[in-house]
Fold this sequence. Notes:
Helices cover 4% and strands 48% of the residues. It contains 1 helix and 12 strands. The protein has a 5-stranded antiparallel sheet with strand order 1-9-6-11-4, with no helix packed on it. A 5-stranded antiparallel sheet has the order 8-7-10-5-12.
Amino acid sequence: MSDSFRVTALQASVYHEHDGSLGVLEFVGLPFQPQRFFWLSGIDPVAIRASHAHKTCHQLLMCLTGGLSATITSPAGDVKVFRMKMGDMVHLEPLMWLDLTEFSMDAVLGVMASQPYDPSEYINDRNEFRELRKK
């Protein structure tokens, strides 16, 4: 695995009480200034979501409830798999391919992005992503 392949796993504060759970994320110390937030829910457990990389956008993946797997591939072909549960977070830097799988029926994944939505920012073709290795 190359030394340049960094993916940071983080943990939000989650407090479990008799009447439910409270999750807290302080915006101090985040690796980027969020410009967009979206979430995925109701995903079929056999579905594969994301399957793309971003050219310059950072993302912070946050499992809000349930569980799922996040498989991250660097341009060099190095792979890291994170099995995420409530409160787990992963900072995804630009030029990292993301596949999301194994969603539990109750999974909700929140994503903060460093940029507003821009379709030209996406790399949706795995072959185009592999070409980055040659550059």
